Amino acid sequence: MTNLPRLKIGNHSPRYPIIQGGMGVKISGSRLAGSVAASGGIGTIASVGLACDHPLYEGWNYFDINEMAVADAVKTARAAASGGIIAVNCMVALTDYDRQVRSAAEAGVDLIVSGAGLPMKLPEYTKDFPDVALAPIVSSVKAADLIIRKWGKLYDRLPDAIVVETPLYAGGHLGATRMEHVTDEAFSLERVVPELAKYLQDVVKTDIPVIAAGGIWDRSDMLRAFGLGASGVQMGTRFACTEEGDADMRYKQAYIDATPDDVLVIMSPVGIPGRVLRNPFVEKYISGNVESKPCMAACLSHCSYLKDRSTFCIAQALVDAYQGNWETGLFFTGSNVVKCTKLEKVSDIFKELVGGGE
Ligand SMILES: Cc1cc2nc3c(=O)[nH]c(=O)nc-3n(C[C@H](O)[C@H](O)[C@H](O)COP(=O)(O)O)c2cc1C
Predict the structure, then answer these.
(1) What is the CATH number of the domain that holds 211?
(2) Atom of ligand 1 nearest to the CA of 27
(3) How far is the CA of 136 from the centre of ligand 1 (A)?
(4) Ligand 1 pocket by C-beta < 6 Å: which residues?
(5) Please, which residues bridge with residue 163 across strands?
(6) What does the pLDDT average to over 158-179?
């Protein structure tokens, strides 16, 4: 039996070193996050677009309702977590990033995980909540170094953990500015995790935990990540297709049905690559004939659809996917979707992953 590392992020220590990654829009809401936390991992709510099915949402009030919905989701997940640890994932690229971060912190979240850009101002937005741990997502040591220097200089604060997400296998928006990075081994976990662990030890002289994300499915993947120097893993795709997953069953069925040919990487309206399932919507986008729904709320700081109506409104397409609309939705996925053959239970995934070894 292999002992699993003890993960400590700020003041928070989950029973198992497993984080369920934030998945928007509403693929990981309060139900999935609460279940994962109750099973001994860290459950993460994705803050993006939570307004979309909030009872008070009327279109014009998107940002106000989003703020309220983040707090509601934290409280609901907390009530289901049996004392477990709840995180919120906030994407830097969002127009209301600061409001979502503040709302999560005020609602008493344990951890904020933040990527899709470098979260340079994250400590400023959470300065009144010292118990809220902060974990940036990066894909290179260079990005981690930039964040550490900036946080040190401006806020005298270090990250409480750093998530390394490899664009080679991960789902959703990828930490890559160019398409060719998506297949570049320089961004593999095998390269970046040991390099970052060494940099943190030798240069920063701290034991900040490194969390490995992207392409982790089973216990052997997890143990391999620990062997590279990670103290925890973050998993998305496998948790999306669970009974507790917040998406419509048709979303989960699309995962179950996916074949290797169905997984592809497109340039998203945000201007970075994203891994998605091939469906009628994506086929139309690739052939230049996509019909977009109107802009939902100017929710992104950089959006090619908002700028010149090229591409499509990604918020609308992600909400459509969450609701299970195969023809009009954008279904984000990690490349491991091909291993998804059935709907699982969160507790069964944990049993398999931890295998009795703590
Ligand atoms: C459907 C989906 C949506 C995602 N949305 C987000 C998001 O909103 N913010 C974020 O930082 N990462 C997002 N991710 C990335 C996950 O949090 C996680 O790091 C990644 O999927 C790990 O790789 P895996 O899917 O191979 O386990 C998303 C991933 C998926 C599959």
Answers:
(1) 3.20.20.70
(2) 1
(3) 14
(4) 21-24, 27, 46, 48, 89, 91, 115-116, 137, 165, 169-172, 213-216, 234-237, 240, 332-334, 336
(5) 137, 211
(6) 95
At a CB cut-off of 8 Å and minimum separation 6, what does 288 contact?
none
Q: Is residue 11 part of a domain?
A: no
SS3 101: helix
Residue 171 lies in a domain: yes
b/e for 165-202, b at 16 or more Cβ within 10 A? bbbbbbbbbbbbeeeebbebeebbbebbbebbbebbee
> Which domain covers residue 314, as residue numbers?
250-336
Q: What is the pTM (predicted TM-score) of this model?
A: 0.97
Atom of ligand 1 nearest to the CA of 25: 8
Give the pLDDT confidence score for residue 151 in this predicted structure.
98
Q: Is residue 115 part of a domain?
A: yes
> Do 188 and 279 belong to one domain?
no
The number of domains in the chain is 2
Q: Is the CB of residue 321 less than 8 Å from the CB of residue 330?
A: yes
pLDDT value at 104 more than 80: yes
Q: Is the pLDDT of residue 224 over 60?
A: yes
- Pick from 34, 62, 28: nearest CA to 47: 28
pLDDT per residue as tens digits for the range 179-209: 988 999 999 999 999 999 999 999 999 999 9
Q: Over pLDDT 70: what percentage of the chain?
A: 99
Partner residues linked to 46 by β-bridges: 89
Same domain, 106 and 230: yes
Whether 102 is in a domain gets the answer: yes
SS3 86: strand
Residue 105: what are its φ and ψ, rounded to 5°? -65, -45
Are residues 210 and 106 part of one domain? yes
Q: How far is the CA of 202 from the centre of ligand 1 (A)?
A: 30
347 and 299 housed in the same domain = no
Sheet of 263-267, strand order: 172-173, 273-277, 263-267
Rounded CA-CA distance 172/189 in Å is: 17
Question: Is the confidence at residue 279, as pLDDT, over 90?
Answer: yes
- Separation of 239 CA from ligand 1 center, angstroms? 10
Q: What pLDDT sits at residue 295?
A: 85
The residue whose C-alpha atom lies closest to atom 3 belonging to ligand 1 is 23
